[in-house]
Predict the 3D structure of the following.
Amino acid sequence: MGRGQSGSGKMAAARLCFLRRHLLWPLIPQRGYRGDSPTDSGKDVLEIPLPPWEERLDEPLETKRARLLYESRKRGMLENCILLSLFAKENLARMSKEQLNRYDRLINEPSNDWDIYYWATEAKPTPAEFDTDVMAMLREFAKNRNREQRLRQPDLEYLFEPPR
């Protein structure tokens, strides 16, 4: 037998596992996401109001680029951290002031990061107020036509390289 456990020891362990799974597990209250259950009253949902997005009119361009780079990397979900940080690396340096403002609004005005992800991947239609040239750039980037491996955020060393 493997690793010092006799046949009867393995059977006892298997029996204990079975008992835990089938007898105790149903008695333990389970927590988790219920989705869009029709019986969900929503009474346990806490809505925290976010302050409205405001354009930063006096922000210097390089400060805006640095802030947007940071905000692209620090999202509420990993999918957007990866997508937006790679998009920012590729595009922020060559965006015009107006495009930077539209990108700022796109990543900071919606209160739900999943919305941005669904719009970028075309899983849901983009609302008219966010359907801009920057959103088109993000959608095209999300298609990953070059089949690059996008498993993590880019390292920050590229910030110290001369712009291309």
Q: What stands out?
A: The chain has six helices and no strands. The radius of gyration is 24 Å. Helices lie at 7-24, 61-73, 78-91, 97-108, 113-120, 133-143. The CA atoms of residues 103 and 134 lie 6 Å apart.
